[in-house]
Amino acid sequence: MAPMGQFVTIAAHPTRRRSSEIKIADNGTQDFYDGPDAAVAFISLPQTPHFWLVNGRIPQSLLATPVAHCPVIPELAAFPFAENLVAADVEIRDGYITAIAPPQTGPKTVPETVPQVDMQQGLIWPCFVDIHTHLDKGQSWNRVPNPDGTFASALDVVQGDAEKYWDREDLYRRMDFSLHCSYAHGTQALRTHFDAFGSMAATALEVIHTLRQEWSGRLNLQAASLVSLDYYLTPAGTALADQVAAAGAILGGVAYTNPDLIAQVDRVFALAAERGLDLDFHVDESLNPEDQCLRAVAQAKLRHGFAGRVVCDHCCSLSVQSPEVMGETLKWVREAQIGIISLPLCNLYLQDRQPNRMPRYRGVTVLHELKQWGIPVAIASDNCRDPFYAYGDLDGLEVFTQATRIGQLDRPIADWARTVTSTPADLMGLPQAGRIGLGQSADLVLFKARTFNELLSRPQADRVVIRQGRSIDTTLPDYRELDDLVGIA
Ligand SMILES: [Zn+2]
């Protein structure tokens, strides 16, 4: 917009944090001008320990327990919308949710001096839980772009980048940058995998230890080792399991189809059982129907009577197997009580990529079938701005929005919102996270959107994030902060 005409400051809409200005252009038309930072929050919260969010809506599936006298809104629950939303007022006191009441009933019982914030039917979500990321690789795109966008190239160029650049400072700054992104978007807990061959493990664990302390109270940070499973058949693999145990981390790795797969998986379960560790496997990230490492992991968990938590990630090959083969694997997975983590954005980027050819198969695992089998399914970010996925910003809402569109999770939307909240929280052993309930910490994301349709149609950059009862600064870090690291002059 040309800097012509007269600016007239007007009173902001009462629900906006900052005032806007209307430009009266020379031709008499009006344009809104929001200043250099257009992503302003849609409401302003009082900086007091006690207030009410009134006239909000909570997805029923995200309530920790059904709230008496808070039924779903009938006209939205009915056909054709099929959105189960509960109208509610929420009391926040000293950092906790102390009441969830039907609209217009709760605040009547409290003094008028307690502030009330009108949500105008906007959605109230719990904070996101991002169970699968690779912060050690993230934010490196300019330094190490993927030359052709394929999986093979990603593996190749990341190895070179790691050998050349991954010292403590480099890892710390890129990982901390990503945590700032994640936190600002409204995430409260996050698991990162870290490449763990040789001396890489000690360096990564040292940085993660520092970040875990610095982010304590804001982000619950978990870490899982990442090596190919054959590594655990070596003395170095045993040493890695000891390092993982000492760090309070999760034992993880990539399972590949190979003649020694069963021995490798058995060894990993034995190492984990001896040390009381949970397990996290990358499996079957391919479009080869012969890849059935998921089944091998499920059978091994049952064979070992393994008591810890086990999750398997990607599981792309399920999407190209016959219903009979897929069903046989899902039977084992359900019996073994293994959680599945889908990474749709990364899958879309890497799977079925060939030069000058439209991708036919998208590689996202069988989300609907897993749900029908009663298998816990989470959806997560995976890589961000690195050779495995060039884009992304560790935004739980973006992940959910894209997954909904890719996987047709919307007719009905049902309880799919749990895939980025309570289900990953359960799989991470955080039973209080990712849901809204009485007595729980007030860790919430507030949206202007009133329905799932409105929510999934826009990025919701004007969302408000509440942590322990206080709104946080949702300003995203500037990519320029990393210019010197990634080779931008
Ligand atoms: Zn991964």
Layout of helices and strands, plus pairs?
Elements: E1 6-9, E2 21-24, E3 30-33, E4 50-59, H1 74-77, E5 85-93, E6 96-101, E7 116-118, E8 124-126, E9 128-133, H2 151-165, H3 168-185, E10 187-195, H4 200-214, E11 220-226, H5 235-246, E12 251-255, H6 261-275, E13 279-283, H7 293-304, E14 310-314, H8 323-336, E15 339-342, H9 344-350, H10 367-372, E16 377-379, H11 396-407, H12 422-427, E17 444-446, H13 452-455, E18 464-467, E19 470-471, H14 483-486
Parallel strand pairs: 4-7, 9-10, 10-11, 12-13, 13-14, 14-15, 15-16
Antiparallel strand pairs: 1-2, 2-3, 4-5, 5-6, 8-17, 17-18, 18-19
The protein binds zinc ion.
Provide a short characterization of the protein structure.
The chain has helices spanning 74-77, 151-165, 168-185, 200-214, 235-246, 261-275, 293-304, 323-336, 344-350, 367-372, 396-407, 422-427, 452-455, 483-486; strands at 6-9, 21-24, 30-33, 50-59, 85-93, 96-101, 116-118, 124-126, 128-133, 187-195, 220-226, 251-255, 279-283, 310-314, 339-342, 377-379, 444-446, 464-467, 470-471.
